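Q: C-alpha cells for this one, please.
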Amino acid sequence: MKQGIIFDMDGTLWDSAENVAASWTKVVQKEYRADRVITEQEIQSVMGKTMDQIAAILFGELSQEKQEELLAHCCKEENEYLRAHGGVLYPKLEETLQQLQKDYRLYIVSNCQSGYIEAFLEHYGFCGYFEDIECFGNNGLDKGTNIRRLMDRNHLQQAVYVGDIQGDYDASSKAGVQFIHAAYGFGTIKEKVPKIHAISELPEIVKNVW
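A: Here is the predicted structure, written as C-alpha cells:
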C-alpha cells in the first residue's frame, strides 16, 4: 500500500517569519511607505493563510489591485531572500526526513506563493526528500483541494497531513486524510488529534495513525 506523509511548511518544517518580514519591509518601504515595518509577529500571525488573505490583512487600506501588486513584489523578493538566506529549521529536521523516507513517500502542500517551497528545498538541498509539492500560488486552490489533488496524481492510498494550525486540520478533513498536530508550531487544534512536540517525534507517532 502506497502511504504518504504530507507536510505543511510554516510552523511545521521551519520558521521563516523573521526573514520574510525583513524581505517584505524592504519592498514596502521602497514602494509604499518609508515608515512601514513588517514585523516578525505580523508574519507569524498570518502564517497558514492564503496569499490574498494575507494581503487583505496587512495592506487592507489599499485597493485590491494595489494589494495584489504590492504582494506580488513582496513575494518575489521573499523567494529570492529565502533562497539565499533560508529560515530557522526545527531541530533534527533532516535526520527525521531521512528516517521517514525509508518507509513513506514525503510531500509538501502549503498555502504559500509559487516558488516559496522551492526556495526552501534549494537552500537546504532537500529536493531529494520530497517527491511532489503543491501550493495555493500555483493554482489558487484551497489547501484541502490541493492535498487531494496531490494524493490523486501520486496514487497515494493512505496519507497523513502534518500541520500546526486549525486550518491545517480543517484542510486534512476536507481531503479525507489523517492529521498530526505539530504542537511546537504557531497554533492550536480544537479537536483531539495525535500531536508531536518536536519533529523528531514524528516517526514514532505516525506508526499508530493507520
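A few notes: The mean pLDDT is 95. The radius of gyration is 17 Å.
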